[in-house]
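Please check these two lines:
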Amino acid sequence: MWYLIDTGFKDPYFNMAYDESLMGAIENNETVLLHFFNFKPASVSIGYHQKVEQWLLNLEEKGVQWVRRRTGGRAVIHCNDCTYSLVFQRDNPIIGGNIIESYKRIALGFKKAFEILGIPTSIQRGREKTSGRKKVPLCFSATSLAELTWRGKKIIGSAQFRNKGIVLQEGTIMLCDPGSIFPKIPEMATVKQACGRDISLKEMKESIIRGFEEAFSIHFEKFKEDPLKDELLCKYSSKEWNLDGSIPLDT
């Protein structure tokens, strides 16, 4: 059964705690949870292994909140975006498999979603060559295997975390430019840029739902449970977790 969840605009700590909580709600290999969520105030999520650098602290002084994700990868800006997560078992018959296999299968659903909006995309076949280039700490500055591009620019960024056979994949689509307060990313494509018009958050979500249903011949049902675990909310809002990825002693 495929379930749909939309928690709307929440702070970054709630969003990350909710996503990890969803990993405990997977009952069997047929269960898939698609979670839409957004950030208020404007935020940045950094990858699990990523270092906290001065540019991030400078944004914090300007009112931007930030959180360390459980998934890997580089920092993602959350402003004027559509962010999702998928939670499922590794052996799910439709989107399961090893990391590369599941990335490729999930990419087909998003490719169909972009087609519905009139945006032709390509699935990256190999890792982008970055030798000789300075590593940039932002996700959209480099395209990884099985991610989608538009005219050579990255249009969606995703990362996974796996634990005890359960997969959490989180990803972000930028609807339009996040604003001058954030670093510019020349390698990133926004949906507005690719589509040639403004696409609302609602329209983007609807295209993803329809894209997945058509690509995989499935149907979404509304998820009615409340899986949020208080201890995870404490973890993601703690300095210990966000500064170095450690788990607070009181959780």
Q: What stands out?
A: Residues 48 and 209 are 28 Å apart (CA to CA).
